[in-house]
């Protein structure tokens, strides 16, 4: 078991039931702007906790962050099931942040990592990545340009992502 999987397990166990705190908790844990995570959720599921999508390749995505079934075997080792991803928003947010952090580790904290969250990093997926980046970047700008209040706290964005997309 590697450090990132241990961290994921501990994070999911520690996240408070308050959905609002989930964005900040996941962002802090993985050093990702919480507003970026929200922008991804807006694009992926329209903020629908129980979202289910069947893909053209026969796979499917579930929950707020639309976690693809290819991740289920790794997640099962930590007791994270498809049902939990569709009924526990904080679990979905934390897993989505974990997956995005893996791409950030591979390609850097940039728009390519965001595009890879949805389309992967293969050379044949460049067009799909760019299309997804455009959607998320648009939603991210909307969220950054309005005050987001969770309880009494405001999100402090992590520094702006680089706009380079491979």
From TrEMBL:
> What are the UniProt keywords, alphabetically?
Signal
Q: Where is the Transglycosylase SLT domain?
A: 22-134
Residues spanning the signal sequence:
1-20
Give the matching InterPro entries.
Lysozyme-like_dom_sf, Transglycosylase_SLT_dom_1
Does the keyword Signal feature in the UniProt annotation? yes
The transmembrane residues are none
Pfam families in alphabetical order: SLT
Can you say what this protein is called?
Soluble lytic murein transglycosylase-like protein
Q: Which organism is it from?
A: Glaciimonas immobilis
């Amino acid at each position: 078991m590697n450090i990132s999987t241990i961290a994921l397990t501990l994070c999911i166990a520690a996240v408070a039931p308050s959905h609002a705190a989930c964005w900040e908790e996941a962002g802090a844990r993985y050093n990702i702007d919480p507003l970026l995570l929200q922008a991804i959720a807006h694009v992926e599921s329209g903020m629908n906790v129980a979202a289910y999508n069947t893909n053209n390749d026969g796979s499917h995505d579930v929950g707020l962050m639309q976690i693809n079934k290819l991740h289920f075997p790794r997640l099962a080792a930590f007791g994270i099931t498809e049902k939990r991803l569709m009924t526990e928003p904080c679990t979905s947010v934390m897993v989505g942040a974990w997956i995005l952090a893996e791409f950030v580790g591979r390609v850097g904290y940039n728009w390519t990592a965001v595009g890879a969250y949805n389309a992967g990093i293969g050379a044949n997926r460049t067009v799909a990545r760019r299309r997804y980046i455009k959607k998320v970047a648009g939603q991210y700008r909307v969220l950054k340009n309005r005050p987001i209040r969770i309880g009494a706290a405001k999100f402090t964005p992590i520094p702006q992502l680089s706009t380079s997309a491979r």
